[in-house]
Every structure is written in structure tokens, then in C-alpha cells.
């Protein structure tokens, strides 16, 4: 199911366009049911998440923006909620951030699935696989490769995915590399549900700590990440968040859903 099919299936009322990117406005349980149904029906669907950071990237990287047009996009974080409230008068029904949503989706899927893991370091991917296997014992988790490979290695990795043909493929390479890699290399011959998951495998491995529950409840996980990795993330949050909101304000003033 690409975004054109999504628009037809859900109608414009279920999609909120943030900086030119249509994002599914759906409740948590309904999103889990949707992904479960797509897997059961073997309907190839590329899945990603929109937050302020990758919305900013899409504004300056037309190749990435074009790739996202063929993904089912779920809302991630307080930034896109603020954008939806400004543009549409209401936030998204639920925050479907991949770090929490993807494990919950796998836990809720009762039919045994094969889940491929691609990305992160080998150690972190293996540790994430062990964690996921404990969370969702009904599934088989297979580490295909870490995220550090050359272009020359890509055909072998793609062949490995095709041979396994997992129901779900978790691709953890960071934005925009993971979405572009899925767009260029993965189709219905390889898996049913490729999901771009960012730092999920690093979080699951325990290498990168999550914010304490009270910060997550207050929607401040971004601040926690900034505090523990300021050198890497200051530009993303300190510069990126105000820039994102400025771009959204421009969209509001223009009365359009197009990318500025």
C-alpha cells in the first residue's frame, strides 16, 4: 500500500499534511490493527515515521521527500503534534513513535512472524534481537546485517533478505539513509512490511538509554536525548525544532500543505 492507496483507503480526513508530507492520523490500537492486517494480507507497505527532524530534512532534500511519498507515514513526537494543532486545530490522536510503537505492534501480533533486523552495529542488533524475542516470543527474529556496509556488499544483503523473505523488516540506519535504502532496494519480493526504525535497535540493546517515564509522559524525551548527546544532537533540536515550527507557520500562512 503506497500513499496513493492510503489516501484512497482512509480519505483525506484521516491524513494531516505536515510540510507536504501526508501523515496518518490514527489511534494507537487502530494503527496496530492496520499493520497486522497488512502483514496478514501480504500487502507490501513501506512504513516510516514523521518527526520535526526528518520533516526538516525533507524540506531540503527533494530525493528524500519524493521517497516518503511512497511510504505509510505515522506521527512521531511533540513537534508534529504542535504542527497538527496549528494547521488543523487538533493534535494527532496518538503519538506513534517507533521506539514504543514497533515493539507494541510485534507484541500484539499473535500470528507467528519472521522479523528481519538490518542496521545498527552487529552487537546492538544481536542484543535488540534477544530483547525482542523476549518481548514477543511468538516471532522469529533474524539479524541480517549491521548497518555498516559498502555499496559492493548491498547485492548480497538484498539477496539474503529475499531468501529469508521476512514478514517484517526493521531497517535501522538513521534518516534519510534508511528510507532511501528501502526505496531503492526493497519491494514485495523481499518482505511485506519494511519499517524505517531509526535508533530503535540501539534503544532496545540498552546502549542508548531511554528518558525516564516521567519525561516521556511530559513529551520531553527529545530534551533527555539532547542532554546525554549534546554534541551530536544540538543542531537537530536547538536549531531544528524552531526551524520546523517556523516552516509550519509559513505553511499555515500560505494556506497550503506544500513543502516550503
Automatic annotation (TrEMBL):
The lineage of its organism: Bacteria, Pseudomonadati, Pseudomonadota, Alphaproteobacteria, Hyphomicrobiales. The keyword Isomerase does not apply. This is WecB/TagA/CpsF family glycosyltransferase. Coiled coil: none annotated. Keywords: Glycosyltransferase, Transferase. Pfam families: Glyco_tran_WecG.
Amino acid at each position: 500500500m503506497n500513499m496513493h492507496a492510503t489516501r484512497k483507503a482512509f480519505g483525506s480526513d484521516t491524513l494531516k499534511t505536515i510540510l507536504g508530507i501526508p501523515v496518518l492520523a490514527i489511534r494507537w490500537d487502530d494503527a496496530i490493527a492496520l499493520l497486522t492486517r497488512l502483514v496478514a494480507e501480504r500487502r507490501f507497505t513501506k512504513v516510516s515515521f514523521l518527526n520535526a527532524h526528518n520533516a526538516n530534512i525533507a524540506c531540503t532534500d527533494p530525493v528524500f521527500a519524493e521517497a516518503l511519498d511512497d511510504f505509510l507515514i505515522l506521527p512521531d513526537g511533540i513537534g508534529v503534534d504542535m504542527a497538527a494543532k496549528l494547521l488543523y486545530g487538533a493534535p494527532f490522536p496518538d503519538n506513534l513513535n517507533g521506539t514504543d510503537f514497533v515493539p507494541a505492534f510485534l507484541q500484539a501480533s499473535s500470528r507467528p512472524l519472521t522479523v528481519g533486523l538490518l542496521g545498527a552495529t552487529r552487537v546492538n542488533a544481536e542484543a535488540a534481537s534477544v530483547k525482542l524475542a523476549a518481548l514477543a516470543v511468538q516471532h522469529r527474529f533474524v539479524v541480517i546485517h549491521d548497518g555498516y556496509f559498502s555499496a559492493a556488499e548491498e547485492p548480497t544483503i538484498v539477496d539474503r533478505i529475499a531468501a529469508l523473505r521476512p514478514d517484517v523488516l526493521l531497517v535501522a540506519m538513521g534518516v534519510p539513509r534508511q528510507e532511501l535504502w528501502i526505496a531503492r532496494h526493497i519491494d514485495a519480493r523481499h518482505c511485506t512490511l519494511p519499517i524505517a526504525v531509526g535508533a530503535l535497535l540501539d534503544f532496545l540493546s540498552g546502549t542508548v538509554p531511554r528518558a525516564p517515564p516521567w519525561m516521556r509522559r511530559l513529551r520531553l524525551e527529545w530534551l533527555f536525548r539532547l542532554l546525554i548527546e549534546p554534541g551530536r544532537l544540538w543542531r537537530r533540536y536547538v536549531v531544528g525544532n524552531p526551524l520546523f515550527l517556523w516552516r509550519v507557520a509559513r505553511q499555515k500562512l500560505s494556506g497550503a500543505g506544500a513543502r516550503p
